[in-house]
Amino acid sequence: MFGLSVALTTPFSQTGAIDDHLMVAHSKWVLQNGANSITLFGTTGEGTSISQVEKLKTLQTLIKEDILPSKINATVITSSLQNAILQCVEYHSLGVKRILIAPPFFFKDLSFEGLLSWYSAVFTACRSLKIQFILYNIPQLTMVAIKPELISALQSEFGSETIFGVKDSTGNLEGTLEFLKNKDLMVAVGDERTLADAMFHGASGAICGMSNVFPRELAEVIKTKTHNAMVNNMTNLIVNAPVTAGVKALLAIKSNEKSWMMVRQPLEVSPQAHQSLLRKSL
Q1: What is the pLDDT of residue 20?
Q2: Is residue 234 part of a domain?
Q3: What is the pLDDT of residue 65?
Q4: Which of 18, 127, 167, 262 has the most other CB atoms within 10 Å of its CB?
């Protein structure tokens, strides 16, 4: 069972630098409160706004502070084939063996063959590293959908140990069920509202942003395959505004740590009206 991986949000100081102290403390807190792992530098983690130098420094800090590499998944989001390979190699050199990898996203209307070629080149270059890859399906942002037939083709070439899983962040349960037809694929969902139903149908867990705030509650959803009405309600409030800033605002309110409000450009801090709504709903 994959379980719960927190799509970790990234704390920033007033100067815009990553707050490594708060990052370490939060990572340890979620791992002590129901999470099986943390996933760094994804959408909730503002990964596309963080340099690779910063990512490696933060990752080194987490490991130095006794967070095991086996508890860490790193995210690769880039359209550059060479950058994707380099990032995978760098994360692996620090002991990270699972990588969430988004499709190349700048060019639109990519063909099946184009996507297959790009991913195949990454996996060929990293074959000797024994990395477990999780494909990141979030077409509402990348505008590139990961299809079950793409995963099947990649597994035929590289095997299910390498093409380990998919994170389906579409919020579309029917699409998740299509992935679940592949019994050699770990399927994790990114939308908390579909988690219970996905688990009932055989999903392996979640990589999700709301677990920054409610790790115990979402670990229980995974265990019991039962909806949590409070989490679903809060998720509905979050997705009706800029999501990443909303998750950080909710975490700031819940933890009474104002630093969590900070986001990096081009994002903006959650509006006061949305903060008030979240505060009243807790």
Answers
A1: 95
A2: no
A3: 98
A4: 167
Domain span at residue 215 reads 3-225
Report how far Cα 83 is from the mean position of its chain's Cα atoms.
19
Contacts of 272 (CB under 8 A, 6+ apart): none
Domain-located, residue 255? no
- Which residues, 6 or more positions from 68, have their beta carbon under 8 angstroms from its beta carbon? none
pLDDT at residue number 237: 96
Determine the average pLDDT of the residues in 46-63: 98
Evaluate whether residue 273 is within a structural domain: no
> Full-prediction pTM beyond 0.70?
yes
Which amino acid is residue 116, in one-letter code?
Answer: L
Query: What CATH number corresponds to the domain at position 195?
Result: 3.20.20.70
Q: What is the CA radius of gyration of the chain?
A: 18
Q: Give backbone dihedrals phi and psi of 10, rounded to 5 degrees, phi first.
A: -105, 120
Residue 148 resides in a domain: yes
Query: What is residue 141's predicted lDDT score, i.e. its pLDDT?
Result: 95
Query: Average pLDDT for residues 261-274, to the nearest whole number?
Result: 96
Question: Would you place residue 83 in the very low, low, confident or very high pLDDT band (cuts 50, 70, 90)?
Answer: very high
Under 8 Å between Cβ of 176 and 138: no
Stretch (H or E) spanning 100: strand 98-101
Please, what is the Cα angle at 36 between 30 and 37, to 5 degrees?
75
Helix (H) and strand (E) counts for the chain?
Answer: 12, 8
Strands (E), 125-204: 132-137, 163-168, 186-189
d(CA 133, CA 206): 15
**Which one, of 51, 66, 63, lies nearest residue 10 by Cα?**
51
Number of domains making up the chain: 1
Enter the tokens of residue 237.
């409030």
Q: How far apart are CA 171 and CA 246, in angstroms?
A: 18
Provide the pLDDT for residue 29.
98
